[in-house]
Design brief:
447 residues; alpha+beta; Spore Coat Polysaccharide Biosynthesis Protein SpsA, Chain A; 2 domains; 4-stranded antiparallel sheet; 8 helices; 19% helix; 30% strand; Glyco_transf_92; membrane
Length: 447
């Protein structure tokens, strides 16, 4: 929940997950807010954050907004407009970030994460080309991945944003009929993406919404200069869609043999475009979807041409570079001999980047990659990519091992409390702060 300014004055924005069949127009919920001087009840407006509900997923992502008093000290929801505060469920809220970051990078959440090479590559490239802040949503990953992210956070290059899959007790699951966290598309990435945009829309003019392996290489000197060119050319567009092409980098499996300069110099690219990723203009776009915009003013985003815009879907494993059959269809492995070398950064700049990297990570002890989770999930999603399955497209459908040798994991958790309004509406609300659990041989997302 956010107190937001780019909506009407004194607005509260709520990102929530609920049953996708909820009748938004008939939902009789009101907001209640107060400060030291006054109180206010206002109607809650609820909308799906995007245009097309996920196929075969029971729950969806919604955005709600309502008017509040100025500078509220209390906010809550109720199903009736009255002076009785006893029927109000308190909702804690945050303020958006106001510090200026003209261009922000919102990553989709990391889950069972072990791809430290791609995290380093993405963070370094985005910083080099002028991203002002990178927001890394993370649920779970190898301890060494967390160590790397914490170093970048200390450098003020990125912000670690905790992202939980709420656990529901057996009684709640039985009452609902399913486990809600397991009925949300993918990694519930649409929730994290909308959350990130709401947090940074006050501070940023442009927001890139993409995965850790999606790297935008600007043709101008930096991202801001490039996005200003597109804004001038398409002044009414709420955003821009960069088509993607496959990229491949060569990396070792162990950290002690990792050379950032060698990795950058190894970049090779395909020339076959496929589904892109969005760049939002925060004064016109409200929410992102995976490959385009969710809600926006003045129509849809502009699809940019491949010759003018470069976003690479960068892989470290040849087995995960797919043959592009069409804009949204893939075959088996691509022939990497058809890829061409790509050199977006001068040799002197590469050397400077590498020297800075070595100094920053000199205290990281050696470790070896472990892609057990990543490989299983890749194969699982590959089998479901035609969207014709009769189940929700999520990693929780994949057959993951209970234990993974040499996978020391850190997972973020947050407990929930159950609140009911007149037996009509049930709310599952965070009741404490985030906390991390550690395990030596698995990532434990649920009890």
């Amino acid at each position: 929940m956010f107190q937001n300014c780019k909506y009407s004055p004194n607005s509260m924005i709520i990102i929530l997950n609920t049953n996708k069949l909820v009748e938004t127009q008939k939902l009789a919920l009101h907001c209640f807010s107060k400060n030291a001087r006054t109180t206010l009840f206002s109607k809650l407006q609820l909308r799906l954050t995007h245009k097309i509900p996920a196929k075969n997923c029971q729950w969806e992502v919604f955005v709600a907004n309502c008017e509040t008093v100025s500078n509220p000290t209390f906010f809550g929801l109720t199903d009736q407009e009255s002076d009785d505060e006893k029927n109000v469920i308190e909702i804690k809220f945050d303020f958006p970030v106001f510090e200026k970051y003209p261009v922000a990078m919102c990553y989709t959440p990391l889950v069972y994460e072990a791809r430290w090479q791609q995290i380093v590559f993405a963070t370094e490239i985005y910083h080099h080309f002028g991203i002002d802040i990178q927001i890394q949503y993370i649920n779970s990953g190898m301890k060494k991945v967390m160590d790397i992210l914490k170093i970048y956070e200390k450098k003020n290059w990125l912000k670690i944003q905790e992202f939980v899959f709420y656990d529901f007790d057996k009684e709640s699951v039985k009452k609902i009929g399913f486990h809600p966290s397991k009925e949300l598309l993918g990694r519930n990435l649409l929730t994290s993406s909308a959350d990130c945009v709401m947090r940074y829309r006050e501070s940023s003019e442009f927001i890139i919404s993409a995965d850790i392996d999606d790297i935008l290489f600007p043709k101008e000197k930096d991202y801001y200069a490039e996005f200003l060119i597109w804004t001038k050319k398409y002044p009414d567009a709420p955003g821009f869609i960069y088509p993607r092409i496959y990229g491949k980098i060569d990396t070792p499996n162990d950290f002690q043999n990792f050379s950032l300069s060698a990795v950058i110099e190894s970049i090779k690219m395909s020339n076959k475009p496929f589904m892109g990723k969005p760049i939002l203009r925060t004064d016109r776009a409200e929410t992102p979807w995976i490959h385009w915009l969710g809600l926006s003013k003045n129509g849809d985003a502009v699809d940019l041409d491949q010759k003018d815009a470069i976003m690479a879907h960068v892989q470290i494993s040849a087995e995960k570079v797919r043959a592009v059959k069409s804009y949204g269809s893939f075959g088996e492995n691509e022939n990497l001999n058809t890829f061409k070398s790509f050199n977006p950064i001068s040799k002197n700049e590469i050397e400077a980047i590498n020297e800075n990297f070595i100094k920053s990570f000199e205290n990281i002890t050696n470790f070896v990659s472990n892609f057990v989770y990543a490989d299983i999930i890749f194969g699982c999603f590959k089998d479901s990519e035609h969207w014709n399955q009769d189940y929700c497209y999520t990693q929780f459908r994949c057959k993951l091992p209970k234990n993974v040798t040499n996978f020391e994991c850190e997972t973020v958790r947050r407990n929930i409390s159950v609140k009911t309004l007149n037996k009509n509406s049930v709310f599952y609300i965070p009741k404490n702060e985030y906390f991390w659990i550690k395990s030596k041989d698995n990532c434990k997302l649920f009890d």
